[in-house]
Specification:
about 0% strand; about 180 residues
C-alpha cells in the first residue's frame, strides 16, 4: 500500500475503534511519507498516531509520536497544523499529570490558533485549561478560561448555554466583566 492508502486505512480503523490497527497504519504511512520526502504529511500521520495513543491512554507513546511535529509544520509555514500539534502535546502532558506543563502548552496552542482564526480547537483548549485550573486551585482563572471557551463554541449544547449564562452572571457579580 502507498502512503495515501495507509492513511485511509488508518482513518477507517480509527473510526471503527480498532486502535492497534490504526496505529500500525499511521506509523507505516508516516514512514512512507518520509521516504517520499513529504515531511509535513509524515508529521500529520504522527499526530494521528498521537491521537490513537491518547485514545488508548498510552500517554508516553502519544507524546513520543507528536514530538518534533510542530517544528516540521512551522518550517512548512503551516500554523494551523503546528497549533494542533501543540494542542496534542498539551493533552499528552495533561494525561501524564504534568499540569503546569499542560497549562503552559495549551496557552501556546491557543495563541497560535488565534493567529489563523481557528475557534473550535481554541475553545476545546480553553475548556481543558479550565478543568486543569480548577484542579490546581485557580478557580477564577478557570472561570475565565471556561467562559472564553464557551464564547468560541459555535454550536453550544443546552448544557453549555446554561453554563455560559451562569458564568456571565458570576463574572458580572464579581465585577470582572
Amino acid at each position: 500500500m502507498d502512503a495515501e492508502q495507509l492513511k485511509k486505512t488508518g482513518m477507517a480503523h480509527f473510526n471503527a475503534d480498532r486502535f492497534a490497527e490504526a496505529a500500525g497504519a499511521f506509523d507505516q504511512a508516516a514512514l512512507a511519507y518520509d521516504l517520499a520526502g513529504r515531511a509535513a504529511d509524515a508529521a500529520e500521520m504522527r499526530n494521528n498516531l498521537c491521537v490513537v495513543k491518547m485514545s488508548q491512554d498510552d500517554w508516553p507513546g502519544a507524546l513520543a509520536a507528536v514530538e518534533g511535529t510542530e517544528a516540521i509544520f512551522a518550517a512548512a509555514g503551516d500554523v494551523r497544523r503546528e497549533a494542533q500539534a501543540i494542542a496534542n502535546r498539551a493533552a499528552c502532558y495533561e494525561g501524564l499529570g504534568q499540569v503546569d506543563q499542560a497549562l503552559q502548552t495549551y496557552q501556546q496552542a491557543i495563541d497560535r490558533l488565534a493567529e489563523v482564526g481557528e475557534s473550535e480547537t481554541r475553545a476545546a483548549c480553553f475548556k481543558r485549561m479550565s478543568g486543569l485550573q480548577v484542579k490546581s486551585g485557580h478557580q477564577l482563572q478557570a472561570l475565565a478560561s471556561m467562559r472564553s471557551g464557551l464564547d468560541l463554541t459555535d454550536k453550544p449544547s443546552l448544557r453549555e448555554k446554561m453554563l455560559k449564562g451562569m458564568l456571565d452572571k458570576a463574572v458580572k457579580g464579581l465585577g470582572m466583566q
